[in-house]
Amino acid sequence: MNTADLGLPVDVPSTALFTDQYEFTMLQAALKAGTAERRSVFEVFTRRLPEGRRYGVVAGTGRVLDAVENFRFDAGVLGFLREQHIVDEPTLQWLSRYRFSGDIWGYPEGEVYFPGSPIIRVEGTFAECVLLETVILSILNHDSAIAAAASRMSAAAGGRRLIEMGARRTHELSAVAAARAAYVGGFDSTSDLAAGFRYAIPTVGTSAHAFTLLHDSERGAFQAQVDSLGRGTTLLVDTYDVAEAVRTAVDIAGPELGAVRIDSGDLLLVAHRVRQQLDELGAVDTKIVVTSDLDEYAIASLAAAPVDAYGVGTQLVTGSGHPTCSMVYKLVARARSTDPGAPLEPVAKKSLGGKMSVGGRKWAARRLDAEGIAEAEVVGVGEVPAELAERQLLVELVKGGDVVAREPLDAARARHTAAREGLPMSAIQLSRGEAVIPTEYV
Amino acid sequence: MNTADLGLPVDVPSTALFTDQYEFTMLQAALKAGTAERRSVFEVFTRRLPEGRRYGVVAGTGRVLDAVENFRFDAGVLGFLREQHIVDEPTLQWLSRYRFSGDIWGYPEGEVYFPGSPIIRVEGTFAECVLLETVILSILNHDSAIAAAASRMSAAAGGRRLIEMGARRTHELSAVAAARAAYVGGFDSTSDLAAGFRYAIPTVGTSAHAFTLLHDSERGAFQAQVDSLGRGTTLLVDTYDVAEAVRTAVDIAGPELGAVRIDSGDLLLVAHRVRQQLDELGAVDTKIVVTSDLDEYAIASLAAAPVDAYGVGTQLVTGSGHPTCSMVYKLVARARSTDPGAPLEPVAKKSLGGKMSVGGRKWAARRLDAEGIAEAEVVGVGEVPAELAERQLLVELVKGGDVVAREPLDAARARHTAAREGLPMSAIQLSRGEAVIPTEYV
Fold first, then answer.
1. Residue B71 · residue B132 · CB < 8 Å
2. pLDDT value at position A340?
3. B308 to chain A, minimum CA–CA distance in Å?
């Protein structure tokens, strides 16, 4: 992982303005009322999975830790808040000293989640916790949506290689986070160099139709590519006639040709024809990469086709129909005074209209059946039942303001594979359904 | 607009890695083949609008200009490309001197577009143009998707105020771009402070349910908020019982109470009740703000309700069902030699499978009917017919590498309003349909 500050925006020096204005005005009002320092617990959870989905995937936790650590107010940010009269002087003074000093527990990155799972639990004074709402939700809602789509696609791909190539279909920095989340969800590589730079995700890519069209003939383009990138390169064979292109490709590169890429047409049909042609030409080790508006259903439909790798763009970076999660950040408990020893009291919104929440500081555990397969997400307040003590899901992420749970991205990726394998088989069915295990409140 | 470099990632110092790897490998192969310096024309266009949509909205153009200007390779980026063996030494040498020196024309920001509209036209050497593909598409595909949703919502709101508050539902930097695009599409303000900081978009926000729950009573919370933020503030009235909250709110703030916000329940019903209650309490000037999973349809359905402002989150920043556009960046013409005087020849992909494109360097104009209303998007290669000369859509954005078309965001916003008003009335129908005017190729 490249953490050097090279002036690139992917290396975030401050996250303090990724904040909705109301967090600052609430802070100001609470400071004046003397309630800002009441000990408080906020939790991130979702009331429902996206329609039809069987499980969610926690992604972005590592980015949340970076964001919390970098949540600082320098002179420029404070000057903006002052000029725009967003908060008053006492609040600006308070902000100038801001550094999160509380505790954060949460589901580790790559873990699966269900409705009601307390994905992140932030504990500290109201003032220090309330400011983190927007940036934590932005990261988790985006990254988890991409990881969930990636997980479905990787299940559908059944071990074949998956390349993330959606940078052009989403905001240029979402793209970097999307490549990261896709990797957590099971993708193998990305076309996005900023993601390779920032997160050391393997990068791939060779050529587009423009390269063929630049040259006077397809043969000239293929020759130029092989001359420069070697016989192991991937040649794009669908600019003109696919069969002709495959013939030319093997003629130039020989059986050592790395791969051919097909980016249009009936992929099932074309892949079969191309495989047969490659084999007849002796290029039995040349791989076939397909890339054309793929989603998890298209990937599954190509299971019987002679395809070696899938490149996925639009549908991956837009969450395959669900570009965001519905995670919220809610105050679930707070002390009645600013005395640090004052007990926490559960709180919850009571109004009608489907936005109820459950008060109290929560634990969560996944109960397994006799075969060791998950059978329920158990969420509770208070003591953890002894039989679930070893199955608890929340881990300590930040302790007294210090990040204590940094890990390589590969750890999150491996955790996701293991977590998904621990679910009932029906979790990876692509058909629409309910959450694959129920959430039980105890 | 705040352009000071305060170390915030929203102020992008280099955009050179927001690039798919294949752009670099194509560059390397073309440099070796001697074709890299062939004069080339790339165009951004879309083959179709999102299903059911009547028009598209160009947004992000200003960000594209920033990205092109900042597309530079410093030692850190070059070191990464070298270490990862992404390109060879001659290519790294070439990149170290990179500065786009060509010309860019395009639809001005806020303009509407249709299938085939040449939204951006980039002209220069193949080498300098090919590298810009991903970053240009990322920006336009994201920002235009948000602006299109914003435009539909602003048409549905019929002059009532619209607040963008979706930061928590999308990547933290997408959020900043989304607030900007929403403003172009007709929104009035944003909750996102980074967007206020970077683009001087008006920011708003007062309090969340957590603020009420922090305090020992709703009355205590309202009193604290009014004490700190004044009687003109907006009180959130749906934490417990709405009618009780409205009574308490007016009791504390008096008829000078700025607004009440309703964030749950049957908004149509609740808004009517709250308006009646406010009027009976004498708070006839107190506004009603509604915020709860709104989209353009929900906004339209509240047209007859006594609502003064809409806060829109999820559905705005996810493009209301269409989180990305399908814009592509295609080589449409190139010279057959590197002689700067060599004529441009049209090129186009010929393979079957629905990804056809039209070769040649294009102009576009919008033909009007006798009433001055748009009746066709006319796209052509070669001479512009005299009767359309005054209706051309592309303007010069970059000349010889220098940005020549920077403008305030308000100019793009005003342009969008005017462009939408120039379309047939059916453009702003929310029902699904075809593009409101046809694209004619001449």
1. yes
2. 86
3. 19
Length of chain B: 442
**Of residues B94, B17, B173, B118, the one with CA closest to residue B330:** B118
DSSP B168: G
Q: What is the pLDDT of residue B5?
A: 36
The C-alpha atoms of residue A351 and residue A202 are separated, in whole angstroms, by 49
Cβ(A320)–Cβ(A300) below 8 Å: no
Comparing CA positions, the residue from B45, B14, B25, B133 lying closest to residue B362 is: B45
Q: Is there a shared CATH topology between the A32-68+102-131+326-441 domain and the A146-321 domain? A: no
At A365 the three-state DSSP class reads: strand
- Tokens 């595909």 correspond to B141
B77 and A6 within 8 Å at the Cβ level: the answer is yes
B272-284 residue pLDDT tens: 999 999 999 999 9
**A78: closest CA among B358, B387, B193, B81?**
B193
Q: Chain A: residue nearest B234 by CA?
A: A22
Shortest CA distance from A74: residue in chain B? B6
**Phi-psi domain of A264 (left: phi exceeds 0; alpha: psi -120 through 50; beta: other):** beta
Q: Are A311 and A161 in contact (CB under 8 A)?
A: no
Residues facing A42 on adjacent strands: A122, A331
d(CA A200, CA A409): 9
Question: pLDDT by residue (tens digit) across B193-229?
Answer: 999 998 999 999 999 999 999 999 999 999 999 999 9
Cβ B336–A216 below 8 Å, yes or no?
yes
Question: What's A384's DSSP letter?
Answer: P
How sure is the predictor about A212, in pLDDT bands with cuts at 50, 70 and 90? very high
Please state whether beta strands B103-106 and B395-399 pair in parallel, antiparallel, or not at all (unpaired): antiparallel
Question: What is the spatial distance between Cα A84 and Cα B189, in angstroms, rounded to a whole number?
Answer: 14
Reported as a pLDDT band with limits 50, 70 and 90, residue B371 is very high
* pLDDT of residue A13 exceeding 60: no
> What's the alpha-carbon Rg for chain A, to the nearest Å?
25
pLDDT digits (tens, 9 = 90+) for B66-95: 999 999 999 989 999 999 999 999 999 999
Q: Report, as an integer, the average pLDDT of A199-222.
A: 96
- Of the candidates A12, A16, A136, A13, the one whose C-alpha atom is nearest the C-alpha of residue A87 is A16
Question: Under a CB-based contact definition with an 8 Å cutoff, are residues A190 and A159 in contact?
Answer: no
A291-311: buried (b, 16+ CB within 10 Å) or exposed (e) per residue? bbebbbebbeebeebbbebbb
Cα B412 to Cα B116, B264, B405, B423: the distances in Å are 21, 34, 12, 17
CB B163 within 8 A of CB B317: no
Fold of B158-320: TIM Barrel (3.20.20)
pLDDT at residue A3 greater than cutoff 50: no
Q: Do the Cβ atoms of A61 and A397 come closer than 8 Å?
A: yes
CA of A51 to nearest chain B CA: how many angstroms apart?
14
Which CATH superfamily includes the segment(s) A146-321?
A: Aldolase class I (3.20.20.70)
User: What is the rounded distance in angstroms from the CA atom of residue B43 to the CA atom of residue A183?
Assistant: 32
* CATH topology (fold) of A32-68+102-131+326-441: nicotinate phosphoribosyltransferase (3.20.140)
What CATH code is assigned to B21-145+322-441? 3.20.140.10
Q: What pLDDT, in 10s, does the model give residues A376-410?
A: 999 999 999 999 999 999 999 999 999 999 999 99
Tell me the average pLDDT across B313-325. 98
Sorted by where each begins, the domain ranges of chain A are 32-68+102-131+326-441, 146-321
CA distance B428 to B436: 9
- In a mutagenesis test of the A interface, which of B15, B18, B23, B231 is the best target, namely the one with the most A β-carbons within 10 Å? B18
Query: Whole-angstrom Cα distance, residue B208 to residue B404?
Result: 44
- Pick from A12, A193, A290 the residue to mutate for testing the B interface (most B CBs within 10 Å): A193
Taking alpha carbons only, the member of B87, B63, B66, B90 closest to residue B77 is: B87
